[in-house]
Amino acid sequence: MADTFDALTHGCYVVTTVLDDRRYGMTCCWATQIDADKILLILGSQSTTARAIRRSRIFGVNVLTTEQKGLALHFGEGHSDVYDKFAGVNLQESVTGVPLLAGALKTIGCELVEDVEHQGGSSFVGRILYFRQSSQAKEPLLLVHIDG
Ligand SMILES: Cc1cc2nc3c(=O)[nH]c(=O)nc-3n(C[C@H](O)[C@H](O)[C@H](O)COP(=O)(O)O)c2cc1C
Asked: Ligand 1 atom closest to Cα of 81?
């Protein structure tokens, strides 16, 4: 059987939160919309952002463009409780307080409404409180763009 890691087609997102004045951010591709106002994230137990979201109860989702592959790689390694991943990263104004990346195709602010722990990680469901779409028509970054 072929490698099943990328069996479905996934977009690339930077998921963020803020807790005790510290900013957290990670790349997440295992995410999807499950209702008109709800987003599901599958976050592994390695993620310090996941642990912070569990406490802050809010998170941001930044839909990356193909021009932001560097940000996907940047937020996809290291841990937010060790160093500030946002140093030198351009941000846009945020209504909910979570970091939102400048130049993202779409920026979303959510409140955590469900958190289910399972082997190796957690499923987080967020209800959308804020949504903004860029006026610039750019291509969304997909996981396949990173692998390939
Ligand atoms: C392209 C890409 C996609 C990723 N998708 C996920 C994901 O869906 N869920 C997850 O838990 N980690 C995913 N990761 C790994 C996390 O981004 C990584 O463990 C990160 O360093 C966690 O950072 P944190 O400790 O600051 O939260 C992905 C990484 C990359 C590069």
From this structure: 26
